[in-house]
Amino acid sequence: MITTVTNTFFVDTFVKSDTYKNQFSHEALNALFDYYEQLEDGTGEPIEFDMVAICCEWSEYDSLKEALSDYNDIKTLEDLQDNTTVIELDNGGLVIEQF
Predict the structure, then answer these.
(1) What is the pTM of this model?
(2) Residue 23 lies in a domain
(3) Residue 72 — pLDDT band, cuts 50, 70, 90?
(4) Residue 29 class from Cβ within 10 Å (0-12 exposed, 13-18 middle, 19+ buried)?
């Protein structure tokens, strides 16, 4: 049985979770949903929604400076993008796939 995951379902699942409700901002959740939707469209393969895996694979940062403080060898946004997937948020924050 397959359930189609909409943006509303995706965001609400995180928001209603006692464990993961504070993991990402609404802006980050919307950006992650868009990322996975585009990835599905690009590959033609469905992606299984796994909230726990998403929380383990991605981190949100308020700024590039905050993100760079977690990586000793990374000095610029371009360096970060060369090493992992980076989703830039309109508020200046970033969502980074952990590596």
Answers:
(1) 0.92
(2) yes
(3) confident
(4) buried
